[in-house]
TrEMBL record:
It comes from Porphyromonas gulae. Probably a homodimer. It catalyses: 2 ATP = 3',3'-c-di-AMP + 2 diphosphate. It holds the Pfam family DAC. GO terms for biological process: cAMP biosynthetic process. Its EC number is 2.7.7.85. The chain crosses the membrane at residues 6-27, 34-53, 59-77. This is Diadenylate cyclase. HAMAP family: DacA. NCBIfam families: diadenylate cyclase CdaA.
Amino acid sequence: MFLQFTIKDIIDILLVALFIYAIYTTFKHSGSKALFSGILTFFVIWIIVSQIFQLRLMGAILNQFVSLGFFVLVILFQGELRKMLTAIGSTRRWRSLKRFLNKEKREQDLQDERRIIAPLMLACMNMARKKTGALIAIQQGIDLTPFAHTGEVFRAEVNARLIENIFFKNSPLHDGAMVIADNSIIAAGCILPVAYNTDLNKDLGLRHRSALGLSQETDAKIIIISEERGRISFAYRGEIHQDITTDELQLLLQD
């Protein structure tokens, strides 16, 4: 006898698949991929033991773990859950949906976003050539205001000379991060969360670890310029691209 699938069942399966994929990507970018795989494996074993083979004793033991599993997951993954809920509730995402429905507004916003790339590229080229250290976070979907308030908050046009002056080694704000949101500089001298992954390259400095830490908690695009070697790096979604060219940086920013 064949199973009867309706449209409702197909939608249900697709929603579950999307939900699992969203959780997987969140855990992957936060460095908890192996832990997520372990939990998923345990869940599959529980289904096989208790639902398919109906082993009563082993099933009863696993059921006790599953009944407490929700509270354990909330404790273990409070950071990842906070990130996922923040992304869902981000007002910027709702504005993005509104722009998607409004073609003229969408095209205007794309032009505005591309307009800031030119001064950013010029500033990065000059700072890399002069070996001026820099850390620039560009807001995407998740709001960066909490991180902006750890530094000096202001609003200014994205200007190459201004960016270079802020990161000049004698500037009081050069050690922190710059935050760009809504096509404007909104803060400088900001403190970002540091990534403590054990598998990170030991040669990575505090700027690179801070960029990676922010990319694990948000969807921001982060530019890093090494003060020692003048090399450009780029962090996004929990991954860092080291020693990239200005052409590669431009493609990553436009993506």
